């Protein structure tokens, strides 16, 4: 039986999305262009790995923006708008600033050392740009979200919920993302970090994510009903991309494919993952700190493993495994247990 009092499925989606992010970042090191975007790149490329990477790339970041908006829905239920802003400042802005000043400079230093560049202290958002976007979205959307909360029983609000619970509502949502892609015209579409495309796409996904959980069970039942259609459409559009390998697919095509993947992920997670688990409880807390620190261990292990004279497939497994071990060990032995460090990684004080 599917539970609806707490959305364990959304917790699982967040954990899985961050896990996929880690795997994706490891895979970048095996692409010849990895160094161009600031990664330590392996001389032994594994270019066929780009096929599953390109499938993930159009929806992994938008999915996280969706889930972040959904999280705010649950956060406002027992908080005033002032309490929400203070709570999000502690959970998002503090780790963001700490990461800019402390975490990101460490992996930049490792990168400089690996390539024998002059070393220097370089504060930068790096992979934490996502947190800066979320902080801005919370501020921008707070009046709107609390307006919906106050007027939840009004006729106009009920009409909006009915619309979103209909496939036509999802069509309007996808249309909004298509308009964003056409107006901003990103090149390439998958370039989200610190771009206007990433900002506006994230803004849409964040707001829609909130509205999805605010609408209630009727929307999720509708998504569950059409889950196979979403999945089939996503696979068909990705297959079309593979066929179009010699040309860039249009941005509107990628936008539609992205949302088809996301809708299918949410629907299948709602069907199969909406149940409690002690593993989920642990991973749900660990995911955020691991996201913050994973690039340090990725760069350290890449710097050690890539010069070894071993097969690139084995190198991939070694880098992924050692990065995961480093992240979980640091979380379990230090971040989770040292009280004063917890807030800097988005955890509550014990």
Would you kindly provide a brief summary of this structure?
The chain is mostly helical. It has 13 helices and no strands.
Overall description:
The model has no long low-confidence stretch (mean pLDDT 93). The chain has helices at residues 8-28, 50-57, 60-75, 81-114, 129-150, 155-164, 167-184, 196-215, 217-225, 227-243, 251-272, 278-305, 312-335. It is mainly alpha-helical. Helix content is 71%, strand content 0%.
Task: Note the main attributes of this structure.
350 residues, mainly alpha, 13 helices
Overall spatial form: globular
SSE pattern: HHHHHHHHHHHHH
How would you state the average pLDDT, rounded?
93
**Regions with little confidence, pLDDT below 50 for 5+ residues:** none
Strand-helix topology:
Elements (H helix, E strand, L loop, with lengths): L7 H21 L21 H8 L2 H16 L5 H34 L14 H22 L4 H10 L2 H18 L11 H20 L1 H9 L1 H17 L7 H22 L5 H28 L6 H24 L15
Helix pairs in contact: 1-3, 1-11, 1-12, 1-13, 3-8, 4-5, 4-12, 5-8, 6-8, 7-8, 7-11, 9-11, 10-11, 12-13
